[in-house]
Amino acid sequence: MVSSKYDPRKDSIDLKGKVVIVTGGNRGIGYATIQHLARAGAKVYMAARSEEKAEEAIESLKKSGIEPGEVAYLKLDLQDPKQVKQAAEEFASKETRLDVLGVYSNFDSTRNRLTPGFPVNNAAVVSAPFELVEGISSIILVNHIGPFVFTQALLPILTSTAKEPNSDVRIINVTSKAHQLLPSNVKFESIEDLKVTYKGKLMPGFMRYCHSKLLNLLFTKSLQKRLDEANSPVPITVIAIHPGGVDTFSHTWPLPWLWKPLVGLAISTPELGAYTSTFAAASKKVGEERSKYKAAYLESHPPGHFAKPSKDAQSDKLAEDLWKLTEEYSKSFEIEF
């Protein structure tokens, strides 16, 4: 369970007039994060592939007390880099600011869906078969390439917002503590390094998941460095978070009324599991100590506490190699930034 001194209702900044995008927010941690941010006054865009599921989630939010108009749908398919860029352009045609970008999606290929946050004990993630999509591993496409393209395409509006007086712009990438289980022989020297199978390893599907979560951390590191070292430094705080163990699955089991309270003895509900992502997105503490939180890796016990990622996740060389390789791959879609 989450042990917390952070209370989203008391310890968040006033988000009235602020605009937020949350990807993969139609259920689980992303959905709960939207609840917290909308209650704090933000206008939130729920970026998701399925409009039907997103509209159902938005209707559920309204029933929970979120006023109509506070949450809107934005079509986003992280498996399609060109559509990802189009989604960013569509958003920019509707809004003049973006204060928080939160990326919450994980790929579950056996169920053909995006799953928000880290679905603990999700056998589909552990056993997902290897699949090539657009010339690379499908899980890398969804968990890294899609978020990279989306973030880069939104940087102009994020930057213009960040340069307004009294701004507090943040980019939140959801990773996982599981990245620490990855063997330390990772490299990003060619496109082949985005096709790793981990064949012969115990639970290769899970290893591919861990690999994608390492990329989230390296992307966070590189992006913060580039923002800080620009000719005109951009005051945006980029943070990676591990939400902890969250029950996003017991409702799908037989006899959920029996399992849900038992699972709840060990891990958090999505509402509590979203505390760390909400802390990163809206905590007053982050706003008061921005330099301290730049490129930080935060874990969930208690929400928002600093943790040390793996040695590979701290590597400047791996971060730079990954950035260059990702940029090169993006050009194959005629996407440049």
TrEMBL record:
Q: Which UniProt keywords apply?
A: NADP, Oxidoreductase
**UniProt-listed InterPro entries:** NAD(P)-bd_dom_sf, SDR_fam
Q: Name one GO molecular function term.
A: oxidoreductase activity
Q: Which SUPFAM superfamilies match?
A: NAD(P)-binding Rossmann-fold domains
Question: Looking at the keywords, is Heme present?
Answer: no
Q: Which Gene3D superfamilies match?
A: NAD(P)-binding Rossmann-like Domain
Protein family per UniProt: Belongs to the short-chain dehydrogenases/reductases (SDR) family.
Q: What is this protein called?
A: NAD(P)-binding protein
Recall the taxonomic lineage recorded for the source organism. Eukaryota, Fungi, Dikarya, Basidiomycota, Agaricomycotina
